Amino acid sequence: MNGRFLRGGYLADALAQVGAAGLFFFSILGALPKSLRYVRETVRQVWFVGAMSLVIIMTCGLFVGMVLALQLYHTLSIFGGTEALGTVVALSLLRELGPVVTALLFAGRAGTSITAEIGLMRATDQLAAMEMMAVDPIAYVIAPRFLAGVIAMPLLACVFNALGIFGGHLVGVTWLGIDNGTFWGNMTANVDLWDDVVNGVWKSLAFGAVVTLIGVFQGYTTPPTSEGVAYATTRTVVFSSIVVLALDFVLTAFLM
Amino acid sequence: MSDVPMPRPDEPLVRVRGLSTRLGGKVIFDALDLDIPRGSITALMGPSGTGKTTLLKHITGQMRPDAGEVWVDGRNVPELGRDALFALRECIGYLFQNSALLTDFDVFENVAFPLRQHARLPEELVRNIVLTKLQAVGLRGAARLLPSELSGGMARRVALARAIVFDPMLILYDEPFVGLDPIALNQVLKLIRTLNQTLGITSVLVAHELSAVRRVADRVHLLANGKIVAAGAPDELARGESDWTKQFFGGEADGPVPFHYPAGDYARELGFDGGAA
Amino acid sequence: MTQRRSYAVGTGLFIVLGFAALAYLATQTTSVANYRQGDSYAVKARFGNVGQLKLRAPVKIAGVRIGSVASVQLEPEKLDALVTLSIDKRFHEIPDDSSAVIFTSGLLGDQYVGIQPGGSPEMLKDGDELILTQSALQLEDLIGKFLVNGSGDANKKPAPTQGTTKPAGGA
Q1: Chain C partners of A185 at a C-beta cutoff of 8 Å?
Q2: Which residues contact A153 (CB under 8 A, 6 or more apart)?
Q3: In order of start, what are the domains of chain B with their CATH numbers?
Q4: Which of A58, A183, B247, B263 could form a disulfide with B255, with the two C-beta atoms 3.0–4.6 Å apart?
């Protein structure tokens, strides 16, 4: 092991993984036209990937918004700028926390279940059975899940943001007594539809693609054992989190 | 000969020539030749790890060999593109060792799956075909059960119904008898024979159970060391005089397949050599 | 079949909910809704310095929002800032000798345009210009004045942290 590490074997392995995932991405894109036949399957996957993640997304969104309002109120009151609370809560959520936290939760909730499901299909020969029935598993199994992730993620992020702002309002206005009009007025004056709301949607679209790609790739390439599936789900969470945060930095640098 | 594209009725359905495969540095096949005549039930037997399942994968194009030709119904499988391969696979049924039913769907939808994927049939017709096939395997009443609610034997019969839904010319059975109780085993045996006799489906089965194979197979090929070491009718082979057949069918622990995995000198490894004394 | 239908219905609901959330964010957290109020009239005002005044900053009378900043441009000849204010039609009775002042909300808050009503019987119309204006109070200038005692050189910017603590300590 140490020898491998010294020879740079891990780096080479990591690069090979990234390369393989990239190729896999292109084979998904190639299978997309064929998978249009499986609209029903895509719809079903949007349900599993998206709708089933709603509860966790909504709960977390609400609490993140509430905590954000509490913390920022404390900080802003130092500068006597508590009327900016609405603005700061909305901007933090729309630009950063909404897409990023949703992506991390999405990786934990939907990404792992995608990996485990596909990994088990691999382990129980279901993917091979599809191959044998002349059905392309990439078009039938992988592409619909990928599409579903890309569709569901921005919607989840929007729900997260809406609940977060509601939570911020709850704490800021109802509890801490900031004027309702000030809260919203400041927010609407400073939040821009394109720069903030739509950029957040772009971000979450990119995160959705990346997290789902990692999920399906890990599932598809997992060794067909129960151990393999267990490791693959762990890798999905770890890699997704790292890539989401790194990509967030890059996207923020470009979109700002 | 092999470069004639149209298959002739008297030509074997599956014709393997000079097949060589290595997996992870280990030689699996070494210039293997094999013919499987149309309409026959052929059993592939051999010690574990001799690549019987791998051979099935070569026949269906799931794996490409390093060298050699695998002709199935006049087509050389390793040279086929994806579309041609898929077209060929529609005429081949494959029964996986663990049945490989799609866990998302119930029994009915599992059997209907290939139909829905490859043929735009009216729902009425799909229903009739599926129920006919389920009736053939005796599981029409289980149409709405989920795969998780089936016993191993039932799951295998459902998988068989799925494999024959397109009336294939060839069915490959990968260890169809493993883990079945005697009743379920007899049911599967009966199905294999019925399908072969009534529909004329060529069958290839990979199995270890000599008693079961004897009751169903026309021919047995014994695989070892990457080659066919013996072939013939099951009874013939069971009486065979070669070391291979003696060990395999006699079930002896030691023989051409050694009991001991290759290792260094035993005494030396335990430290009982002259130097230490 | 029924199972599939319920997935479709659930998925449909989920997608509707997602888009509803997006619509909520787009209309409630941004000033898109304010554009939509539509009926407004434009009033111009010139400032020597607009400071940090941004597009869509509020325009207020007596602290009540009546419109927003539609554009901030540099007038090349006079080298001053021409600010166009978009004021809601509902507030059409503003005397034309009112003055426009750029205020800062709070110490570090955003800037807005405050209008202080005059006494003229004539009311502002679309395209009118507010003659009396007062530029933004520059924090840097104030600090500069405070530190150097009188010299209002705007180019001379003391470090903001130093600046904010100093006057607070002095006051």
Answers
A1: 58, 65
A2: A50, A102, A103, A106, A204, A205, A207, A208, A209, A211, A212
A3: 14-239 (3.40.50.300)
A4: B247
